[in-house]
C-alpha cells in the first residue's frame, strides 16, 4: 500500500476531527484500518478520540488500549485512558483483565488502582481486589468505600470495622463514611459508637445531625430513634425514591376509578419476599386463605429466580397461578401489567427495606395504594393512601407523623400461621448447651437491634438474677467480643452467655426456643416475627411500652395473647418483671401456663380470621373511594367469629 496515500488519508481524518466532523473522521479511519488493520503511528489514539467524541466510550477504550500496545513510551497514558473509559461505561470485565498491565505501568496511580478494585469486586474476583488494597488513596472516601465493600464481600467484619474507623479519621469531612460507620456499629455491637451517634441526634437540627439523617438508611433509623417526628424525616431511601420518581415522571398516569360495587376487588401484593423470608413465614398462610369470593389476587413478584423452587414447595397451585414474575422487568412494563390487570389496590409489602420497588408504587395508576407489614413506620417519599397497622402500634398520637391514613386492624396487624402448623416438639437443653437448672433468658432478635439501652438493661437483669444465663443468637466474633466486653463492664462473666447456632428448619427453631424460660425484648426496635416465634413456642416475652411503631410491636402481640402484664411502663418495670419471673418460680409457672392456654384461642394464631379482617379493610377503603371520598383513618371492627372461606381462585 502506498505510504503517501495512507498518510494523506490519516491527515484527512485528523483535519475532519479538528473541524468537529467526527463522523467524517471515523469514515477516514475505518478506510485506513481496512487497508492496514495493524494501524500506524497514532492511528488508534486518533480513533479513540473520535469514538469518545461520538459518545462511544467502550469502543474508544478499545482504541486507546490498542494504542498502548503500539506506543510503548506512552503505554501507561493510553492504558489509563482505556481503563477509565471502560470503568465509566460499566465494562468491568475488560478492566479486570487489564489488572496485570495496570500494576506494571500504573501502580502509583491510586485512581486507576481504585478502578481495578471496583472492577474486580463487580466480577467477584476478591484476590484481584486484594492486590490493589494498599495502592488506593486512604484519604479518598470512594477508595475507602471500595475497601469496605471488599471486606464485607469477604465476610471479614473486623477488617471492615477497622477500615471504616480509620476512614473517618483520614476523611474527617465525609458524612457518608461517618453514617456508614455508625450503621455498622450496630452490626458489630460497638456500643460506644452507638452512644456517640445518639448524642449527636440529641440536636437533630444541628448541621452534622441533619446531614447524617439525610444520608441515613431509613431502616437503620428505627434501631435507635424514639421520636416518630424524626423517623418521618427524609432519609437516604426517600431521597433516592423521589429522584427515581422524578426521573420517570413521564410514565405517570392519572389514577383510575375503583371498580364498581359487586365486583371482586383486584388486590396486588408487591414484594420480592415471596421466598424463604421472615415476611412469608408469617404471611403465606394468610395469602392461601384469601377469600376468592371477595378478592381477585395478584402477586407481583420480584423475588430472584431461585425463589421459584421455594414457591413450588410452599404455595398451592391456586396461589402459584396468582404469581406474576416482574424480577428484571423495567418499571414501565410493570406499570403496564398493573394497568392491564385493572388492579384496584396495590399493597406494597416492602416499605423502605432492601429490594423495594417503590417507584412502581409512586407511578402506578391504581385507585388505592397501601403499605403493609415489611416496614413498621411511615414510608416517607412514597405516595401511599393507607398504612395497615393496629391501635397498639399506631395510637391516635401517631397520626400527625404519617402521610398515609391509618387503617387499624382489630386484634393484631401481625399475621401468622395457625398454631397447629408448627407446635414445639420435645427437645433437651443439653443438646443446645443449656444448663438444666439455670433460668434461661433468651434473645433471638437480630443483633443490630441490641441498643445501648438494651444491653444496659440486660446487664442489670443478669446481675439481679445470678442463677441465670443469657441465650442469644450472635454469630460474628467481633460482635461476640463486644457483647462480652459490655456485659463484663456490668459484672457479668462470659460464662453466663450461651450462643445459639443456626437451625436446619423452622420446626427445629421452634423446638429449641421452647427450652428458654423468658425472652428479653430489644428496645427501641422490638422483635416482630421473633416475638411471635417465642409466643408460639410458649415462651413469655417481656417488653417495654415504646414511643414509635417499631417499639410498640411486642406490646400489641402480648395483648393479642392475653399477657398485658408482660409490658413494662418504663426501664425499672422491664428489669423488675424479668427479675421477678426469674426468681419467683410459682409466679413464673403461672405466666407460662396462662400463655399455654391463651395461645390456643388467640387471634394471633388464627390466619383465617386475620384474612377476613384484612379483606374487610380493603373493602372499607374501596367503599370510600366509590363514594368519592378521600382516604381517611379507618377502624376495622372485630369479628365475632371467623367467616366461611372460599379458596383463592386458580
From TrEMBL:
<feature type="domain" description="O-GlcNAc transferase C-terminal">
    <location>
        <begin position="258"/>
        <end position="412"/>
    </location>
</feature>
<protein>
    <submittedName>
        <fullName>Tetratricopeptide (TPR) repeat protein</fullName>
    </submittedName>
</protein>
<dbReference type="InterPro" id="IPR029489">
    <property type="entry name" value="OGT/SEC/SPY_C"/>
</dbReference>
<dbReference type="InterPro" id="IPR037919">
    <property type="entry name" value="OGT"/>
</dbReference>
<keyword id="KW-0802">TPR repeat</keyword>
<dbReference type="Pfam" id="PF13844">
    <property type="entry name" value="Glyco_transf_41"/>
</dbReference>
<feature type="domain" description="O-GlcNAc transferase C-terminal">
    <location>
        <begin position="428"/>
        <end position="614"/>
    </location>
</feature>
<dbReference type="InterPro" id="IPR011990">
    <property type="entry name" value="TPR-like_helical_dom_sf"/>
</dbReference>
<comment type="pathway">
    <text>Protein modification; protein glycosylation.</text>
</comment>
<keyword id="KW-0677">Repeat</keyword>
<keyword id="KW-0808">Transferase</keyword>
<dbReference type="GO" id="GO:0097363">
    <property type="term" value="F:protein O-acetylglucosaminyltransferase activity"/>
</dbReference>
<dbReference type="GO" id="GO:0006493">
    <property type="term" value="P:protein O-linked glycosylation"/>
</dbReference>
